[in-house]
Amino acid sequence: MMTQTLRLALGSLGIAIAVLALKLWAARITGSVALLSDALESVVNLATALAALIAVRLAARPADTRMPYGYHKAEYFSAVIEGVFIVVAALLIFHQAYEGFRAPAPIEAPFEGIAISMLATAINGVWCVVLIRQGRRLHSPALEADGQHLWTDVLSSIGVAAGLVLVIVTGMPVLDSVLAALVGLNILWSGTRLLASSVGQLMDVAVPKEQLDAIRETIGANAQGAIEAHDVRTRQAGKVTFIDFHLVVPGTMSVEEAHAICDRIEAALQADHAEAMVTIHVEPEAKAKHSGIVVL
């Protein structure tokens, strides 16, 4: 059965094709370098939507003997690929802007081109809100990254349209190339930020402090019978939050009793934190550090 994440990824691919067609049409009838630059960014949207679709399908595969921790990190690789595509698009846009500076040309049918571009921008605007919200709800880095990139596309497209009005009013075609360069700078900034974030996730960065505090509180509230929990470690991989820690119990406690405490903590963590995978190392009281989460 097709998951909601996969349906959204397929939707992104269809939206990207439609928006690209509209923006290329606008660039063709106007001859505007800025609108062509905006269309080049939509080529990136199409490529990243395809990368997100492949990553979402791969990340949905269950763990196996080759990948015992699952395929969740595939989505972060997709986000890295998106960042690279964005940077490449920025370089292409800078080239187009340079050519425009060398030979400025008047813009044809500007208002028709702006209207078509704004229609494409409205479609992108609605879809990016859907992707960001659903990406966060479904814990999908690929969908959220796709939505964040679409948002920069929306902002740059609005800037291009406003700038083209200025070109018409001033009668200065060279401003068209200035706009193209500004679009390139905007998406270059977006691409570098996305790359930095995605690489950080591939390096197993811990969950945010607020989430870590909630995890520690859940452990403490459900560890009755234990002495303490220490060395709590976390990492995020797509939908899955990996949590591991050491649980110190009285030396006279039976294995069955200690196991029951572990089961209780694990169930509570999985109830409070979606898709949690918990590993607990049980230790006797001689291993207590008298730090971390003190239960008794």
From TrEMBL:
<dbReference type="GO" id="GO:0006882">
    <property type="term" value="P:intracellular zinc ion homeostasis"/>
</dbReference>
<feature type="transmembrane region" description="Helical">
    <location>
        <begin position="114"/>
        <end position="133"/>
    </location>
</feature>
<dbReference type="InterPro" id="IPR050291">
    <property type="entry name" value="CDF_Transporter"/>
</dbReference>
<feature type="domain" description="Cation efflux protein cytoplasmic">
    <location>
        <begin position="208"/>
        <end position="285"/>
    </location>
</feature>
<dbReference type="GO" id="GO:0015341">
    <property type="term" value="F:zinc efflux antiporter activity"/>
</dbReference>
<comment type="similarity">
    <text>Belongs to the cation diffusion facilitator (CDF) transporter (TC 2.A.4) family.</text>
</comment>
<keyword id="KW-0472">Membrane</keyword>
<dbReference type="InterPro" id="IPR027469">
    <property type="entry name" value="Cation_efflux_TMD_sf"/>
</dbReference>
<dbReference type="Pfam" id="PF16916">
    <property type="entry name" value="ZT_dimer"/>
</dbReference>
<dbReference type="GO" id="GO:0015086">
    <property type="term" value="F:cadmium ion transmembrane transporter activity"/>
</dbReference>
<keyword id="KW-0813">Transport</keyword>
<dbReference type="InterPro" id="IPR002524">
    <property type="entry name" value="Cation_efflux"/>
</dbReference>
<dbReference type="InterPro" id="IPR027470">
    <property type="entry name" value="Cation_efflux_CTD"/>
</dbReference>
<dbReference type="InterPro" id="IPR036837">
    <property type="entry name" value="Cation_efflux_CTD_sf"/>
</dbReference>
<keyword id="KW-1133">Transmembrane helix</keyword>
<feature type="domain" description="Cation efflux protein transmembrane">
    <location>
        <begin position="12"/>
        <end position="203"/>
    </location>
</feature>
<dbReference type="GO" id="GO:0015093">
    <property type="term" value="F:ferrous iron transmembrane transporter activity"/>
</dbReference>
<feature type="transmembrane region" description="Helical">
    <location>
        <begin position="42"/>
        <end position="60"/>
    </location>
</feature>
<keyword id="KW-0812">Transmembrane</keyword>
<keyword id="KW-1003">Cell membrane</keyword>
<dbReference type="InterPro" id="IPR058533">
    <property type="entry name" value="Cation_efflux_TM"/>
</dbReference>
<dbReference type="Pfam" id="PF01545">
    <property type="entry name" value="Cation_efflux"/>
</dbReference>
<feature type="transmembrane region" description="Helical">
    <location>
        <begin position="76"/>
        <end position="94"/>
    </location>
</feature>
<feature type="transmembrane region" description="Helical">
    <location>
        <begin position="154"/>
        <end position="172"/>
    </location>
</feature>
<protein>
    <recommendedName>
        <fullName>Protein p34</fullName>
    </recommendedName>
</protein>
<dbReference type="GO" id="GO:0005886">
    <property type="term" value="C:plasma membrane"/>
</dbReference>
